[in-house]
Write a structure and sequence with these properties.
single chain; alpha/beta; Alpha-Beta Plaits; Rossmann fold; 2 domains; 7-stranded mixed beta sheet; 4-stranded antiparallel beta sheet; 7 helices; Ribosomal protein L11 methyltransferase; transferase
């Protein structure tokens, strides 16, 4: 599959950008910093897909046709947290660590972002062998794959974006793990009860998730919420408390917060 890649100078902060992109249902993008310290936004348009409306008056710095393979060449294997290695090259053979083979594609979740790193850290800490796990807003599927490699008995990965679902399925196949991947708007297509729910999405979407997550959890279930910018942490915690979730642990990297909760 080929995409049109457009590069823009990032004019607004990351939180505002993510809100605008998610409001328009646009998920195929990347944020990076160049050698001069400028923050750049790269968006990837499939054939026939239109640019998010708020970008229409932004100046395009660069434009080219590209494929997912082009985006992976600059990514080298790295340790996302202790003993968990992300390998975009598919060349790492070591057996003393958990290795996740990853084709980032155009879905959020290469493992480089602090929200993903904190999510993996808490999966390592709270997931017990044999747990049933659901990853809500799975993106590349990285958290679901880690959960399975950590010993979960059943893992379901869901995302509302069809491209993310396809990328996640590809990554599951690369890692030879038994993870079910399907399209779902949060938990709308999810049935059953899970021991652990992990979700690395925006704070506003967590508010929607909290409306329904009790339906698929039990009194001892663990809920990991990541992707929360610190200025919106309070509203997520207040909503969680109203829905019967108590805070177990909190971690912050830069402006990003991850919360671990348990049913009260």
């Amino acid at each position: 599959m080929r995409f049109k890649e457009l590069v823009f100078l990032l004019k607004i902060d990351e939180e505002e950008l993510l809100e605008k992109l998610y409001e328009e249902g646009f998920f195929n993008f990347a944020i990076e910093e160049n050698k001069e310290g400028d923050r750049l936004l790269r968006v990837y348009l499939r054939e026939g897909e239109t640019l998010p409306s708020f970008l229409s008056n932004w100046k395009i710095l660069d434009e080219r046709l590209t494929t997912p393979k082009d985006w992976m060449v600059e990514l080298e294997p790295f340790e996302i947290v202790e003993d968990v290695v992300v390998d975009p090259t598919e060349k790492v053979t070591r057996t003393d660590k958990i290795v996740v083979k990853l084709s980032p594609g155009v879905a959020f979740g290469t493992g480089l972002h602090p929200t993903t790193q904190m999510s993996v850290l808490f999966l390592k800490k709270y997931l017990k062998k044999g747990d049933r796990v659901v990853d809500v807003g799975c993106g590349t599927g990285i958290l679901a794959i880690v959960a399975k490699k950590l010993g979960a008995s059943y893992v379901l990965a869901v995302d509302v974006d069809e491209q993310a679902v396809e990328v996640a399925k590809e990554n599951v196949q690369k890692n030879s793990v038994d993870v079910t991947v399907k399209r779902s708007d949060l938990l709308s297509e999810v049935e059953g009860v899970f021991d652990l729910v992990v979700s690395n999405i925006l704070a506003e979407i967590h508010l929607r998730l909290l409306e329904d997550v009790s339906r698929v959890t039990h009194e001892k279930s663990i809920l990991i919420l990541s992707g929360i910018v610190d200025t919106k942490e309070d509203m997520v915690r207040e909503k969680a408390q109203k829905k019967g979730w108590n805070l177990l642990e909190r971690k912050q990297e830069r402006e990003w917060v991850t919360l671990v909760m348990k049913r009260s």
